[in-house]
Amino acid sequence: MKKTIIMLVFLLSFTVFAKTVLLELKYNGDKYTIINVSVINKDYPSSKVSFYSKDNLYFHIKNKKNKIIEKCSIANPKILRIPPNKNNNEKNIAAISLKKGSFIIRFKYHKNMKKLKIIDKNGSQTLIFDENIGGSDEN
I need a labelling partner for 85 at 20 to 30 A (CA). Which of 23, 49, 124, 138 fits? Predict the structure, then answer.
C-alpha cells in the first residue's frame, strides 16, 4: 500500500510539472533562425511524422556538452503538398517548394537543453537556445 501511494504521488507530480517547448523557426532558403521560444506547463507529445521521406526535417535537442537528449522529425514545411484533384482524375500529389516562411515545432522541455541541430537533405545547422531556456545542469 505504501509503495502504491509513493508511486501515485510520483506520477501525479510528473504530470503536474511536465512542460512542453514551442519553438518558432523561420527559414530563408537553407538558413534557419529562432523567432520565439515558449515553455508551457502542459505535457504534449513532440512533433513527429510516422513516415520516412528524404524531405523530412530532423531535429536533435542537445545539452552544452553536445549530448543528444531528444530527437524528433517533421514533414518539411518548405514543401507545400497539394492532394490530387479527383474531379480531374489526377493521380500524383503536386509539391511546391517555398523559399521563405516560418513554422512551429513542439518537444518535451528538458532542464538542460541548449542547442537545436536541424538536419535536412542539404546539410545541417546548429542553433543556440536563449540562456533562460537551457538552465545550467548537465546530463
Answer: 49
